[in-house]
Amino acid sequence: MADTVLYDLTDGLATITLNRPDAMNALNIEAKVALRDALQEAADPAVRAVLLTATGRAFCVGQDLKEHIGLLMEDRANGSGSTMTTVREHYNPIVTALTEMPKPVVAGVNGVAAGAGAGFAMAADYRVVADSASFNTSFAGVALTADSGMSWTLPRLIGQSRAADLLLFPRNISAQEAHDLGIANKVVPADELAETAAAVARKLAQGPTAAYAAIKESLSYGAGHSLAETLGKEDELQVRAGASEDHRIAVEAFVKKEKPVFLGR
Predict the structure, then answer these.
(1) What is the pLDDT of residue 86?
(2) Rounded distance between C-alpha atoms, residue 265 and residue 261, angstroms
(3) Mean pLDDT over the full length of the chain
(4) Domains and CATH numbers, the chain
(5) In the record, what terms sit under GO molecular function (predicted)?
(6) Which helix (H) or strand (E) covers residue 80, if one does?
(7) 129 by DSSP, 3-state: which?
(8) Tens digits of per-residue pLDDT, 183-233?
(9) pLDDT exceeds 90 at position 251
């Protein structure tokens, strides 16, 4: 895997680290391909949780505009539109993997998250954010529309009206405001970000993985279906969860007044 993205699997936790600190983890083609491939690797059943984080002072500032403008000039010269296929080829598979992966994903947001970088953080299930970090939708500022799933994730996090405001009028959103809006789940001092995000992710990696997968699925389903349909989905998922080995372990541990040790199945 390319050095632009680092991958580590330890005790069921896959840590995926964006690693272009000198470029504020801007997404060039190499980084996008590496991140997409890392998330595909994290589909391994041995992975029970994923931590997405970054090196340096930024989480990810989105598209690498230096590379982007060069590709746009090539498109103009040869009359093609291949540059914008990056949404289909890279961003969409990345966001799909983050949102549909049957295991929890934690984003450890160490610094500014802008454009697609913010989109990737919002596609995670839980966001631990450094108090010095910030978010910015960015797209309208460069005459683009939302991508990286943000038109789906952002309204679900903060509501349609606030999402429209942040997309139409991009601005820096502090960590505290992100928490107040519902984007950040937890805000911690910057020097505690790495430790806290890893601790949250490790706890999830030791939990009932199949139940977490069902929770993700039910939340996604409920956001776009009626109450009656959602109740039916809850019934289906609860039957599945009730048949899991982890449920049996949890019930037995409860009866014995012991702490359950989940196996992730």
Answers:
(1) 86
(2) 11
(3) 93
(4) 5-205 (3.90.226.10), 209-255 (1.10.12)
(5) lyase activity
(6) none
(7) strand
(8) 999 999 999 999 999 999 999 999 999 999 999 999 999 999 999 999 999
(9) yes
Q: Is the dihedral of CA 205, 206, 210, 215 positive or negative?
A: negative
pLDDT of residue 101: 95
The rounded distance, in Å, linking the Cα atoms of 148 and 122 is 9
**How many residues are present in the chain?**
265
Q: Is 233 exposed, middle or buried, given 0-12, 13-18 or 19+ CB atoms closer than 10 A?
A: middle
E strand segments, 116-249:
126-130, 134-136, 173-174, 186-188
How far is Cα 93 from Cα 204, in angstroms, rounded to an integer? 23
CB 137 within 8 A of CB 118: yes
pLDDT in tens, 64-113: 877 766 666 666 766 666 667 889 999 999 999 999 999 999 999 999 99
Task: Compute CA distances 115 → 197, 216, 255, whole Å.
Answer: 22, 24, 49
- Burial of 87-107, coded b for 16+ CB within 10 Å and e otherwise, reads eeebbebbbebbbebebbbbb
Position of tokens 């982890």? 246
Greatest Cα-to-Cα distance within the chain, rounded to the nearest angstrom: 72
Which H/E stretch holds residue 104? none
Distance CA 65, CA 7 (A): 25
Provide the 3-class DSSP secondary structure of residue 173. strand
Of 23, 57, 17, the C-alpha closest to 39 is 17
